[in-house]
Amino acid sequence: MNIKSLLLGSAAALIAVSGARAADAVTVAEPEPAEYVKICDVYGSGYFYIPGTETCLRIGGYVRYDIGVGDIGSFDGAATADHEDFSRQETFQKHARFTLKTWTGQETELGTLKTYTETRFNFANRNAAVPYNTARNSGVSLNFAWIQLGGLRVGKDESAFNTFIGYAGNVIQDTLVPYGDFDTNVVQYYFDAGNGFSAVVSLEEGSGVKGTIDSYVPHVVGGVKYTQGWGAITGVVAYDSNYEEVAGKVRVDFNVNDAISLFGMVGYGSDDNLSDPTWAIPGTSGIPGAQGRGFFKQWGGNWAWWVGGTYKFNEKTSFNAQVSGDDDKNYAVAANIAYDVVPGFTVTAEVDWAHDGKFNQFGNFNWTGADKKNSVGGLLRFQRSF
């Protein structure tokens, strides 16, 4: 029995040692730490850190589909040719857009370093270059691409004549009586004095045949704003270096309560050098003149006004309206109902009316693009924002 026990014990020891050596020979690598995307809440919701950097990035945008009818401005009821006899036919105005936006932010020893970009891709069936409209890709536009360090901003923006004082109402067709041109390269400085006071100075290039500066002298915009819980008072003044004319606007925003917000804005501009009936590029037959309108003073005559407001029925539904007019007796009314079907998806139904005070004085089309003195149109918009 002793010999048998000794043999069994020796065999068990050999197996244990062999197993231990085999286990020691297997090396299991530890998992490498994964670098997950980190949320950045310094600049608001939606930002995250770009891996390996201290830069916060946000990506957003919207997908939009418009169905327009009638004869108001850029959403004219589309005219097309019958495919059998080529007679004029009326049809819906359709417009689809995908907009991509990016924001970045990073803290530096000189202040916050920010960028913003917005690019729009369009497919529509309105084409002013041919007699009848055809559905097709209608262009890509770079609407914003600026860099800002502290209060200094440079790049592609929209004019401070509009962005600082604020666009008009919460209606789709807010420029039936226009309140200024938009696209421009800028060199701007924003100043926050605290206690609700802020200011801006903007040197701008303008855009288009008549709006782009024609010398080293830029367009200049200056503005001041006072903001409190009840609303804001803002004023802007602009100098058009091409025509040496000045325009200005004053705006008041008033928050009546949680459901009602109102605004009123008035504009005035000089036009001594803006009344030539034609203006020709060398080598061309001529281009229709500004008819009293520059890059900033887009309205007719010297003065113009815009009033409107928003009433929120509940968290999902709101009513928006705007009434406007100018010195040339151009008047417009726009009103809509906006409904948030689910968060991020809004359906808006709008009705618009415009009256041209100088119809047929400069041609067969009024200044909104329609061929009648009183124009009516409607627009149904579907928009998914993200």
Q: Describe it for me?
A:
The protein is mainly β. It has one domain (53-385): Porin. It has three helices and 21 strands. It has helices spanning 2-25, 160-163, 208-211, and strands at residues 48-49, 56-70, 78-81, 88-91, 93-108, 111-124, 136-149, 152-158, 183-194, 197-204, 219-228, 231-240, 245-255, 260-269, 278-279, 287-288, 303-312, 317-326, 331-342, 345-355, 374-385. The strands form three sheets. It has a 16-stranded antiparallel beta barrel. The protein has a two-stranded antiparallel sheet with strand order 3-4. A two-stranded antiparallel sheet has the order 15-16. The termini are far apart. Pfam families: Porin_2 (PF02530). Belongs to the alphaproteobacteria porin family. This is Porin.
Outline the secondary-structure elements.
Layout: H1 2-25, E1 48-49, E2 56-70, E3 78-81, E4 88-91, E5 93-108, E6 111-124, E7 136-149, E8 152-158, H2 160-163, E9 183-194, E10 197-204, H3 208-211, E11 219-228, E12 231-240, E13 245-255, E14 260-269, E15 278-279, E16 287-288, E17 303-312, E18 317-326, E19 331-342, E20 345-355, E21 374-385
Antiparallel strand pairs: 1-2, 2-5, 2-21, 3-4, 5-6, 6-7, 7-8, 8-9, 9-10, 10-11, 11-12, 12-13, 13-14, 14-17, 15-16, 17-18, 18-19, 19-20, 20-21
